[in-house]
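User: Predict the structure for this protein chain, please.
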Amino acid sequence: MADDAPILDELRAMAVFATVVRAGSFAAGARALGLTRAVVSHHVRALESRLGVPLAQRSTRSFSLTPAGEAFRVHCERLLDEAHDGIRGMELLRAEPSGEVRITCSHHFGNKRILPALLEFRRRYPSVRLHVAMNDSNVDLVQKGMELAVRAGPLADSSLVARRLVKEPTMLCAAPAYLRRYRAPTSVDELSQHRWVVYPPNQKSMSLHLGEEEIQVPIRGDVVTDSAASRLAFVLAGEGLARLPAYDAATLLAAGELVRVLPQVQTAPLEIYLVHAQRVGPSARLLRDFLLQAGQEMMASAS
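Assistant: Here is the predicted structure, written as structure tokens:
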């Protein structure tokens, strides 16, 4: 416990600093915290001493952040927000959660992974209403009134928070019917000569790893789709090769309906993220934490 004392002091000082920044002055931050200005100043000075850089320029009438303070502010505010969210989450557990959550996810992954978790969430929290929008395109969360989105890859919008939900292994696959018509590739070089089911539609190449070597393979095919479910259906019909996530391929490989192509080649995993605004309501926080926990359990069971 003695070893934890310094970090506890630093965490307290970070919370004080974040409060001062949000309040706009040492005096206002002290009032918000119920502390004296001298105590607040002591915490910030201790933090500056620990970091070895000044965080703020202050006088009796003005307060402004240094470049180091501006950069460090982000971490301190995130710490404070997480603490508040944790407390609110525990408050929700003491009472029967209610309200509504609006969430969007793709049709295929949503039905495979998210829908079972949402059904369990409803069994556990029957008073929370769910509005579930299945959509394969990335939607504007604010414009569509969505609080949570489940998407492959973090979004480019830096104002949103993207937390990895699951990391699914993938593999190259084809149907036996396709491999009867076209000789199965025996090397990575032969992949460019094969037909592919192209997904997503803008994909022109695929990055593969053979040992330590990274290889870019051109992707061409007569079937292009924006739907993961359609991709799987076309592959099963013998229309071409595709990189498939394990949750699609595993049972079909075992049943002989799919064949793994070049098993020595490593393909990039499919990373699924839970995306939301910086601040979300209590019901959305409850579902967010529930899905993140479900994602950890999915990855643990797959490993």
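The longest strand covers residues 160-168.
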